[in-house]
Specification:
The chain is an alpha+beta fold. The protein folds into 4 domains: 2-45; 46-70 and 402-551, Elongation Factor Tu (Ef-tu), domain 3; 77-89 and 118-142 and 369-395, RNA polymerase II/Efflux pump adaptor protein, barrel-sandwich hybrid domain (OB fold (Dihydrolipoamide Acetyltransferase, E2P), Beta Barrel); 210-329. Helix content is 47%, strand content 28%. The chain is built from 8 helices and 19 strands. The protein has helices at 2-8, 13-42, 92-95, 144-191, 193-252, 259-330, 332-367, 415-418, and strands at 43-51, 53-75, 120-125, 132-133, 138-142, 372-374, 379-384, 391-392, 397-414, 426-431, 439-451, 458-466, 478-495, 500-502, 505-511, 517-521, 523-527, 531-536, 543-551. The strands form 4 sheets. A 6-stranded antiparallel barrel has the order 2-9-12-11-10-13. Helix 4 (144-191) packs across helix 6 and helix 4 (144-191) runs antiparallel to helix 7. The protein is flat. The relative contact order is 0.18.
Length: 553
């Protein structure tokens, strides 16, 4: 019964899979054949005739290299940083030296928002690598919440800056009144300037002298301790010698032969040992005292150095205060004008801060519309720096695009030829991807010599900037650069594009007597980047063929 049921179930799974695989292989084979046949139908070879010529050809040095196209990076340049307040304004009274009777009515404003960083959040990315965009195209959409938050914070900065400006204007009025009072008190405090200056210098000198004296005393004490240490070392040396002799005597005397002598030797050894240990303890204590004294001297040396610094800076400060008071005494009216002028400068800085805060808000509203950041350039994108969820702040890289103004080719030139090349020279360029176009360029950089340790050859890296319209050129394209040596020769030549190469073999296509296309080996010489010298295989007037493939649709 079970066998009958198996027969009713039909083919096994293995058989079905094998059959399906066979069908799949047949279909793949048909597809490959069809694709090959289709491609053969779509593409055909055509030949263009060109004639071998004889005449003057400019000698050139031709080297191969790859095109490198530069990049332009767009950064986020909006300044959305927090308002820093007017902390940079100068308080006129602190400049005046803080003389008695002069109330500090100004001071450095500590207003301003926190300096914590501000960021915008990327909510959607509109572009991708390889995409071509135009100036003004949106590249990122920012979260409405983060944009609105920054907009509110910048608006708060404007309000705060405006408040600071009003405070500076009020302070200027107070400063003007105080300056008038200062004018009247300058005479009184100016008269005491010389006395206070002398007292300040005396205090500074006394502090320095006290520190120097303390250091000198400590150094004398250290010298005395070191002398005592030397005496103790000699004493320990002697007691150690006596102990060693006593210990030896114990081993020399036989207890049975001379019991009394042996006991006396033991007592002598113990006594000298105690003396030795006592000397060691005394020396250790003295060395500890020396270490402490050395640490004390180091501390006193630092204090003396600090006192010397304070003396120098204090003298400069005292001289400055003295000069300031004399100035105020002799030029009270000028100082009044100066004080008021500084106050006006503070107001000007506050006005600038207010203007800057307003400009930040205006730029945000102008540059970020509909919560989008737009491209400042046109071109093909090579890098998208931001992703959804990233934070955007000033200086962040947004995108990178190809900069066709920096299309370059770097080639290696051997030492024998480098003296024929200099920066600014014009060159001819051929790019494999554009066989029918000739490009020109300029030598922009010649690198340092590079020595090949295996072949001992010396080469130089020469960089050439491609000129003209280079749109459509991409990094990595194979190219040849011909450096013109400004010499000419009478040679037989043909277009570079007529030469075909297979390894080290060079050949051309031409028609035989029956009209068939055949190959003919040739020997080539130098090239000017467009034409190439023929040293063997062709003569002037020969017609050769330039092969190219065209699509039939």
């Amino acid at each position: 019964m079970q066998e009958q049921e198996k027969e009713k179930k039909g083919p096994s799974k293995a058989l079905i899979i094998a059959a399906a695989a066979a069908v799949l292989l047949i279909l793949i084979g048909i597809g490959i054949y069809a694709a090959f046949f289709w491609n053969k139908k779509e593409e055909s070879v055509v030949y263009k005739e060109t004639e071998v010529a004889h005449g003057k050809l400019t000698v050139g040095i031709t080297e191969s290299g790859n095109v490198e196209v530069g990049e332009t990076t767009q950064e986020f340049t909006l300044d959305i940083s927090a308002y820093s307040g007017t902390q940079n304004t100068q308080n006129v009274f602190s400049w005046a030296g803080g003389m008695p009777g002069m109330a500090n009515q100004g001071g450095q404003s500590q207003s301003g928002s926190s300096s914590e960083s501000r960021n915008l959040t990327v909510e959607e990315v509109y572009v991708s690598v390889g995409e071509e965009i135009r100036e003004g195209d949106p590249i990122y959409r920012l979260s409405a919440e983060s944009v609105e938050k920054i907009r509110e914070e910048l608006a708060e900065d404007v309000t705060e800056a405006k408040l600071d400006l009003k405070q500076m204007q009020t302070q200027l009025k107070q400063t003007s009144l105080s300056a008038q009072h200062d004018y009247e008190t300058d005479m009184t405090y100016g008269a005491a300037a010389q006395l206070e200056y002398g007292e300040t210098l005396a205090d500074l000198n006394q502090t320095y002298e006290d520190a120097a004296e303390a250091l000198s005393d400590a150094q004398e004490e250290l010298a005395k301790l070191q002398e005592e240490e030397a005496e103790l070392q000699e004493k320990l040396k002697e007691s150690t010698h006596l102990y060693d002799e006593a210990a030896y005597l114990v081993t020399y005397i036989d207890l049975e032969d001379d019991p009394y002598g042996y006991i006396s030797a033991i007592q002598l050894r113990d006594t000298t040992e105690q003396t030795k240990e006592s000397d060691e303890d005394a020396l250790e204590e003295k060395q500890d005292a020396i270490t402490e004294k050395q640490e004390e001297i180091a501390s006193l040396q630092r204090k003396l150095t600090q006192a010397e610094k304070e003396k120098r800076s204090g003298e400069i400060k005292a001289q400055a205060e003295y000069d300031a008071r004399v100035l105020r005494l002799n030029q009270a009216s000028e100082l009044y004008n100066l004080t008021v002028g500084i106050g006006k400068q503070d107001v000007g800085e506050a006005e600038d801060a207010y203007t800057e805060a307003q400009e930040k808000l205006d730029e945000l509203n102008a540059c970020i519309q509909n919560d989008c950041v737009v491209s400042e350039y046109s071109g093909v994108i090579t890098e998208v720096s931001m992703a959804v969820g990233d934070s955007l702040s000033r200086g962040a890289s947004l995108i990178a695009l190809k900069d066709y103004g920096e299309a370059e080719i770097t080639v290696s030139v051997e030492d024998d030829d480098i003296d024929k090349i200099k920066i600014g020279d014009q060159v001819n360029i051929s790019i494999a991807a554009f066989p029918d176009e000739a490009f020109t360029g300029t030598v922009s950089e010649i690198g340092d010599a590079v020595v090949d340790t295996y072949s001992s050859t010396i080469t130089y890296e020469v960089t050439v900037s491609i000129e003209g319209d280079v749109e459509g050129i991409y990094s990595g394209m194979t190219s040849e650069v011909t450096f013109i040596t400004k010499e000419t020769k009478e040679v037989t030549y043909v277009l570079n594009r007529a030469i075909n190469r297979d390894g080290t073999r060079s050949f051309v296509y031409l028609y035989d007597e029956n009209g068939n296309v055949v190959e003919k080996d040739v020997q080539t010489g130098f090239s000017d980047g467009i034409n190439v010298e023929i040293t063997d295989g062709l003569v002037e007037g020969d017609v050769v063929l330039i092969e190219s493939k065209v699509s039939e649709g």
